[in-house]
Amino acid sequence: MRNFWFWFLLVLIAATILSFILGFHKAGYALGFLLSSVLVTIGTVYAAKNNSYTHKSYHEDYINRRKR
Question: Is residue 57 very low, low, confident or very high in pLDDT (cuts 50, 70, 90)?
């Protein structure tokens, strides 16, 4: 699935740049907005999945520091 998102984002970036170069500015803005929305969504999902791992280690570290 990661490979799919990588290629999907790469195609969106290329399509956005190409549409601006060819003069289709409205399409470029629409594709750029779609690209930024997908990037924010992927980043949020990744951060939410990573939070359960990092919170545990931060929490244990905090408790150990408080015990000293």
Answer: low
